Amino acid sequence: MGNDPKIADAGAAGWIAYSIATWIAWAALCGFVSSKALLFMACISLACTIPYLGAAITQLKLGNVAGGVTWLYFGSFFAFCSALTYAVNYFAGIYGWEVDARILGYEWAILALVLILTTPIFLKFAPAAAALSVIAADIGLASLALIYWGFAGSLVFQLSGWSFFVAGFFGIVMAVGGILGGAGMKFPVGRPLLKQDSN
Fold it and tell me: How far apart are CA 150 and CA 130, in angstroms?
């Protein structure tokens, strides 16, 4: 009877969470805030899990596997796992817990590799703003893995931080574009950077 319920794309909410997550990382990596901000960062990251998962579920239901899976692992690791690790780092500093954060380098290395290897999807099918955001995130994540492994100086901290700033900025563009687009209003997010095959 054609009564299947329709679902709207909540991708814009995912972009908002992504921008928040990347900008708090930018602030922390570049030294704009101290370790006393970690508990607030944990709270913010935990809240970001909700829009990430909303974006993942709606995109998967709409048949967008690439977008849905990306939002899903962003929600799991960029938000929920980060919330836990921010909290651990905060309390470790207070109570003198001995932790080996190098293990997190392996997590960020895998996430960086997955995102880097799937970046061509964004270059070919996503708006330019999304592609530029993902490229910046590629750099930020790869640099972050090096930081956790202890192979990075202050320059790499700055590289990772400012890469996340760029990623978050274009994430804001995508969020606004998605919200306004859902209301039938146009907002410039750019065309895909790679041309699709004409065949």
Answer: 30
| 92-134 tens-digit pLDDT | 999 999 999 999 999 999 999 999 999 999 999 999 999 999 9
Distance CA 190, CA 193 (A): 8
Q: CA-CA distances (angstroms) from residue 133 to 130, 146, 198?
A: 5, 20, 26
**What is the Cα–Cα distance from 191 to 130, expressed in whole angstroms?**
10
Nearest-angstrom CA–CA distance, 167 and 165: 5
Using DSSP, state whether 42 is helix, strand or coil. helix
DSSP H or E segment with residue 114: helix 103-125
- Spatial contact of 23 and 165, defined as CB atoms under 8 Å apart: yes
Tokens representing residue 188 in the block: 């410039």
Tally of CB atoms within 10 A around 54:
18
Q: Which pTM does this prediction carry?
A: 0.93
Q: Which residues contact 159 (CB under 8 A, 6 or more apart)?
A: 139, 140, 143
d(C-alpha 190, C-alpha 132), whole Å: 10
Task: Residue 19: name the closest of 189, 182, 188, 164 by CA.
Answer: 164
CB 42 within 8 A of CB 84: yes
